[in-house]
Design brief:
This protein is of the alpha/beta class. It has eleven helices and 14 strands.
Length: 337
């Protein structure tokens, strides 16, 4: 297991205060220094630190800007953030507004500081809003984000991604290897979504091998195409050379019968509110699940987009001039009725 780290963000200071260093050392957490927001995000995305400490006492504007950037990303926003602040009330308000989870102020006694830091870590560890293996927002946060977008009134697309033949992979290669595949998929989703939509992209982990991305409708096809391309490029190398060369292996079905198992693929179902009127996240979830399930009936990595519209005056769903579902594979699009 990787050694836990903490990031100390400060443009100038060589190390965190002694009491913070002692607190981290007692938990065997090593300290890494970040001098810029770019450096901080690079470390946070690569290593998922246990905590980030921001030196907001000396140059608060720089530190709190970096804190706000860390907390605005769905992948790194779950990392606990501590702000070292002056005793001024406005400094306290600014730090919390930037997303800090706890504030350490000059006037605090050592006992109060340690107690607050310990409580903050306990809150982070039992926070059920994030998935423990990927540290992505979990179902409650996904639902809240969908509801937020519904209330905002703009158009959005929900992309439901699920792995094919994942259970068989677990059976053959072990659950720990399966967890590694989940983390790889989470990283792909995050990097693609945030690379294309840094400000309005969201990635959440429902559980298991199920993920949700929320993006602008106009970018959904581009995003899913890149996810499929990267996944199909990387996944063969997660198998033995023999399985990779063959393109399949033999596994047992529920009846104990041997059958050929293809290499893993990813299926994505896309729904938008461009032709639908959603009032509750459950409606979005139901339709996204339907699209994802349809995608899984097709061979290979694929993403499908719902093009139907709500019924008008009790009529049937759909638009006579539009294909109801678009099915796209490897950048090639065809339409299914």
């Amino acid at each position: 297991m990787a050694h836990p780290t903490a990031v100390f963000f400060s443009p100038d200071a060589p190390a965190p205060p002694a009491i913070i260093q002692d607190w981290l050392a007692a938990r065997d957490i090593a300290v890494v220094i970040a001098r810029s927001t770019h450096e901080l995000m690079g470390i946070a995305l690569r290593s998922r630190p246990r905590v980030v400490i921001f030196d907001a006492a000396d140059k608060p504007e720089i530190a709190l800007r970096a804190c706000r950037r860390l907390k605005s990303d769905s992948f790194t926003g779950v990392i606990p953030a501590i702000a070292l602040s002056s005793d001024a009330d406005e400094a306290l308000e600014s730090a919390f507004s930037a997303g800090a989870d706890e504030i350490v102020r000059d006037r605090m006694s050592p006992e109060e500081t340690i107690a607050r830091l310990n409580a903050m870590l306990r809150r982070a560890e039992r926070d059920l809003r994030v998935h423990p293996s990927t540290r992505l927002p979990g179902p409650p946060e996904i639902e809240a984000e969908i509801l937020r977008r519904i209330h905002a009134g703009g158009h959005f697309a929900v992309c439901y991604a699920d792995l094919d033949h994942f259970k068989e992979y677990n059976d053959r290669y072990s659950y720990s290897e399966g967890d590694r595949i989940i983390r790889i998929l989470a990283q792909i989703l995050h990097d693609v979504v945030k690379g294309i939509c840094p400000d309005d992209g969201f990635v959440g982990h429902i559980g298991g091998d199920d993920f949700i991305s929320i993006v602008p409708p106009g970018r959904s096809s581009e995003i899913c195409a890149e996810i499929v391309e990267i996944f199909d490029l990387l996944v063969p190398y997660q198998y033995s050379m023999q399985d990779r060369r063959a393109g399949y292996y033999f596994g047992k079905d529920r009846r104990g019968q041997l059958h050929r198992v293809p290499l893993m693929t990813v299926s994505i179902g896309i729904v938008t509110n461009e032709r639908r009127h959603f009032t509750h996240p459950a409606q979005v979830s139901e339709l996204a699940t339907e699209m994802k399930s349809y995608a899984k009936t097709l061979a290979g990595s694929v993403y499908v987009a719902d093009r139907r519209q709500d019924a008008v005056d009790g009529g049937a769903d759909g638009d006579d001039e539009a294909e109801p579902i678009s099915v796209i594979r490897s950048g090639n699009e065809r339409f299914m009725s």
